[in-house]
Design goal:
Elements (H helix, E strand, L loop, with lengths): L1 E6 L4 E6 L26 E4 L21 E4 L3 E6 L8 H24 L6 E8 L11 E7 L4 H17 L3 H12 L3 E4 L3 E4 L10 E5 L11 H21 L6 E6 L15 E5 L2 E3 L2 E2 L4 H6 L8 H12 L2
Antiparallel strand pairs: 1-2, 1-4, 3-5, 5-7, 6-7, 6-11, 8-9, 9-10, 10-12, 11-12, 13-14
Helix pairs in contact: 1-4, 4-6
């Protein structure tokens, strides 16, 4: 069964992917990316072998009565392999390979976003078991949805409210504030600013924001993409030095929706990094208020976390 069900209470869709027995994940062992029939490559895009979203999905299995709704799991799910070497990492591959990945992400964002049924392209990566990674091979994922997914939608709606109230982009205001304060800045270059958010959700969360208002990867120049790759690499290398082991994290790219120009003025390209660790030997697990009410509780102090990360990233 692959279908999407609408929750009228939250206004969000849930995708259901009940994998048939003949396509069980165990059938993909050993690593499916290592089994690809290709030679050397820098970045390789393949269709997800077990896609939650498909360009031509089967019809939904469930009938839904009001107030519910159900639809086929239409969209796209792709896996981006970042190296043929199974043991490679974003850090070991170096900034040039990250830059290659950024160009590929931009191309897939444009290509998938041009499809009429796609409204939002979510580029993300889970690194490490503790962050939910299902493959250890260096990879990222691209999931293309018919609608704007909940977290970016909430950001966009909040940014639109800020624009209406102040006539300014909230992310541009954040960049100006963090540059002026400096206490939470981890690293910066001419094009991007990496910092621990003022109201970080987890102790070592880092956001990487474009220093100018650029709605998506497509608006970044080649120079800016190269600077993004260098800064990301510096931060990720700092993560690995922080506790002297490869720190797990989730990487998420937030950018403009692909179908609706009304969001361009409030879309500000940024990358969010959320590691699950609160210390070297302790994971930060969800608190009841987060599961019950979506209220984040952070046992860390953003300014202290930024100080630790600055030292780990170095000059």
């Amino acid at each position: 069964m692959r279908e999407r069900r609408w929750d009228p209470a939250t206004g969000a869709w849930t995708t259901f992917t009940n994998v048939p027995p003949d396509r069980a994940p165990d059938d993909l062992e050993p690593c499916p990316l290592c089994r690809l029939p290709v030679g050397a490559y820098d970045v390789l895009v393949v269709e997800d072998p077990l896609p939650p979203l498909e360009p031509s999905p089967p019809p939904a299995h469930t009938e839904a009565a009001e107030p519910y709704a159900v639809t086929a799991a239409i969209g796209a799910s792709e896996v981006v392999a970042h190296a043929p070497e199974h043991e490679a990492t974003f850090v070991s591959l170096g900034p040039k390979r990250l830059e290659d990945a950024i160009h590929v992400w931009a191309d897939r964002y444009a290509t998938l976003g041009a499809r009429p049924e796609i409204g939002y392209v979510l580029i993300h990566a889970a690194v490490g078991d503790a962050a939910g990674a299902t493959l250890t091979h260096p990879h990222s994922r691209i999931d293309a949805y018919p609608e704007i997914v909940p977290v970016p939608r909430r950001e966009l709606e909040t940014a639109r409210g800020h624009l209406l109230a102040t006539d300014r982009c909230v992310f541009c205001d954040i960049v100006a504030s963090e540059r002026g304060d400096g206490a939470r800045v981890v690293k910066a270059n001419d094009s991007f600013l990496a910092f621990v958010p003022f109201a970080a959700r987890v102790p070592y969360e880092v956001h990487v924001l474009a220093q100018r208002h650029a709605p998506s990867l497509l608006e970044l120049t080649d120079v800016e993409r190269a600077e993004l790759a260098r800064l990301l690499h510096q931060v990720l290398a700092g993560y690995d030095r922080l506790f002297d082991f490869p720190l797990p994290y989730v990487l998420a790219i937030h950018q403009a929706p692909t179908d609706d120009g009304q969001w361009q003025s409030v879309s500000h390209f940024h990358v969010e990094l959320t590691p699950p660790h609160r210390s070297a030997d302790e994971l930060r697990r969800p608190y009841p208020p987060e599961l019950a009410g979506g209220v984040h509780v952070n046992p860390g102090v953003p300014e202290r976390s930024a100080e630790q990360l600055r030292a780990a990233v170095g000059e």
